[in-house]
């Protein structure tokens, strides 16, 4: 029998529960263990949990997971769960870093409709079940969430164009949610991501009222044959025009 929870609540519960699995794996891993082995254990453990839980809760739905084979049947399915079992494997393996996440999103009949981003080491779940409110603007410089380990070559030019300051952090989900929790004002990415990297953050951010798009301002489209979705913008709505203009000037 199909789980009676709404899709919104199911997404939130699954992201939180997969996060608990990851915390257990991380906590039990030997202190002197190889980081690569911890990454693999986390990816696999969370993936297996989510696949089993979705098969039980929504047996008729397709699933697209970063850690699973791409079942092309999803392209003709009405409902597809798009999941990243562990976003930010590097940060997960660098204990006690907390800037890693679990993404769970639902695509239905052409659009994302529900989702959740768990940040397990912080005990936080952002979801469409209980949408966040956009924090008040600080009124200061635009704060850009950026990769702490792989900043792109175009970043200094964007910082100059926006007169911005940088807020380095880990996973894509954490960066997107930093705009929602008020620790950043914008997240701009161009240079390679996949649908599972952004699906859950985008539906959670958009439901809360943040601006989301590709870097050219076009909509983010999911459950495509090619799952590469290399760029996105998540920002406060009042900054959208300014950020889009700056990005356009850079030719990203």
Describe this structure in words.
This is 3'(2'),5-bisphosphonucleoside 3'(2')-phosphohydrolase. It catalyses: adenosine 3',5'-bisphosphate + H2O = AMP + phosphate. Pfam families: Inositol_P (PF00459). The relative contact order is 0.14. The protein is an alpha/beta fold. α1 packs antiparallel against α2 and α4 crosses α7 (240-250). α4 (155-162) links the parallel β6 and β7 (165-169). The strands form 2 sheets. The chain has a 5-stranded mixed β-sheet, sandwiched between helices. A 5-stranded mixed β-sheet has the order 7-6-8-10-9, with helices on both faces. The chain has 2 domains: 7-127, 2-Layer Sandwich (Fructose-1,6-Bisphosphatase, Chain A, domain 1), CATH 3.30.540.10; 143-250, D-Maltodextrin-Binding Protein, domain 2 (3-Layer(aba) Sandwich), CATH 3.40.190.80. The chain has helices spanning 7-28, 35-57, 89-93, 155-162, 172-181, 195-208, 240-250; strands at residues 62-65, 79-87, 101-108, 111-119, 124-127, 143-147, 165-169, 186-190, 211-213, 231-235.
Key words describing this protein structure:
five-stranded mixed beta sheet, 252 residues, D-Maltodextrin-Binding Protein, domain 2, Fructose-1,6-Bisphosphatase, Chain A, domain 1, single chain, alpha/beta, 7 helices
In short, what is this structure?
It holds the Pfam family Inositol_P. The protein is an alpha/beta fold and 252 residues long.
């Amino acid at each position: 029998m199909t789980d009676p929870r709404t899709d919104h609540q199911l997404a939130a519960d699954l992201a939180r529960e997969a996060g608990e699995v990851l915390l257990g794996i991380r906590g039990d891993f030997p202190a002197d263990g190889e980081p690569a082995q911890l990454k693999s254990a986390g990816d696999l453990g969370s993936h297996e949990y989510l696949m089993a839980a979705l098969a039980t809760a929504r047996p008729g739905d397709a699933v697209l997971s970063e850690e699973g084979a791409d079942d092309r049947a999803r392209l003709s399915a009405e409902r597809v769960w798009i999941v990243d079992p562990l976003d930010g494997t590097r940060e997960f393996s660098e204990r006690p870093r907390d800037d890693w996440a679990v993404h769970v999103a639902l695509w239905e009949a052409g659009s994302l409709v529900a989702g959740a981003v768990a940040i397990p080491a912080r005990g936080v779940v952002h979801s469409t079940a209980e949408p966040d409110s956009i924090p008040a603007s600080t009124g200061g410089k635009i704060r850009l969430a950026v990769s702490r380990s792989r900043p792109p070559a175009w970043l200094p030019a964007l910082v100059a164009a926006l007169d911005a300051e940088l807020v380095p952090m880990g996973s894509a989900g954490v960066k997107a949610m930093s705009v929602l929790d008020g620790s950043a004002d914008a997240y701009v990415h161009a240079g390679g991501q996949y649908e599972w990297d952004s699906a859950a953050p985008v539906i959670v951010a958009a439901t809360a009222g943040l601006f989301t798009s590709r870097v050219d301002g076009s909509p983010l489209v999911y459950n495509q044959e090619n799952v590469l979705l290399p760029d996105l913008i998540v920002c406060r709505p009042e900054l959208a025009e300014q950020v889009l203009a700056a990005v356009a000037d850079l030719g990203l």
